[in-house]
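STRUCTURE:
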């Protein structure tokens, strides 16, 4: 995979500083790489995945807490990781394992003055849920990475917040001072302007370092410019739509308005899938129902 910094417009000197600082970010644990690898094979027995997950108490806890959250509505407590995997499904567990392991690398270094990690978690899981819902709504095949990609699309923000704390605080302060929302293409341009690289550049570099699946890597790199994706355009557009809907949902307290996504994305989904404003309004009802349990899911996924 090409270096994402080399294929996007970034300031060369600042890029070198950024790259030097993040080269020391650890690799993913071997058990995580193994879990992700074997979960790519649908014929892998759930028992084999459960055995691997059981080596990590943190992952074991998260799988069981998510399974027992109100989102899944089971009357009795689920205490078996294997049972939990069968309930959640391979793709959800894969996304959970990846995101929990990656965030664990940075959570101990969080600072309340910078990025709000609880809100970050909330947005990540919301985007993942909406992306999966949208793929199902459109009856698309080959969208197995929708949940994982939604969880990880903004991972570069965590890295910027941890490794460039002072500079990223300046980005966030500038956004607040100019009354600019801290997401979207305009915010990404602000990151590049002030830091020399945006969260998509950083995230793309790490996706390469961690050897994440190409579909997830392209979502991380191109969710603000989905037309630039070369291999996974449909998935990148789905997560881009989910990203906008997740932000809109919490900003507007779940109230639907026809301008909840950008004209570009609305046009793309109308032309490609006949997903027009009327279908979007109906789909928004699914989002509202699914995100009613988001606080419980947030507790099950994170210790923040």
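SEQUENCE:
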């Amino acid at each position: 995979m090409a270096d994402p910094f080399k294929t996007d417009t970034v300031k060369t000197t600042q890029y070198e500083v950024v790259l030097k600082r993040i080269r020391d970010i650890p690799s993913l644990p071997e058990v995580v790489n193994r879990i992700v690898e074997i979960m790519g094979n649908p014929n892998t027995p759930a028992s084999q995945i459960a055995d691997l997950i059981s080596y990590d108490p943190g992952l074991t806890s998260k799988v069981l807490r998510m399974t027992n959250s109100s989102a899944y509505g089971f009357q009795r407590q689920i205490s078996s990781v294997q049972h939990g995997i069968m309930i959640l499904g391979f793709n959800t567990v894969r996304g959970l394992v990846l995101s929990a392991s990656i965030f664990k690398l940075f959570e101990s270094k969080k600072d309340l003055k910078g990025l709000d990690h609880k809100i970050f978690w909330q947005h990540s899981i919301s985007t993942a849920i909406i992306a999966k819902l949208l793929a199902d709504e459109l009856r698309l095949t080959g969208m197995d990475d929708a949940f994982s990609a939604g969880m990880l699309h903004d991972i570069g923000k965590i890295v910027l917040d941890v490794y460039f704390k002072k500079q990223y605080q300046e980005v966030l302060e500038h956004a607040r001072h100019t009354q600019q929302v801290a997401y979207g293409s305009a915010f990404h341009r602000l990151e590049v302007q002030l830091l020399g690289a945006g969260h998509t550049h950083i995230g793309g570099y790490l996706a390469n370092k961690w050897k994440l699946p190409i579909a997830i890597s392209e979502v991380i790199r191109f969710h603000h410019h989905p037309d630039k994706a070369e291999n996974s355009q449909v998935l990148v557009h789905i997560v881009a739509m989910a990203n906008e809907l997740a932000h809109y949902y919490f900003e507007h307290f779940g109230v639907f308005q026809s301008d909840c996504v950008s004209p570009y994305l609305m046009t793309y989904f109308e032309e490609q899938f006949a997903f027009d404003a009327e279908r979007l309004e109906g789909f928004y009802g699914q989002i509202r129902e699914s995100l009613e349990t988001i606080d419980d899911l947030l507790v099950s996924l994170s210790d923040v």
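REMARK: The chain is about 65% helix and 0% strand.
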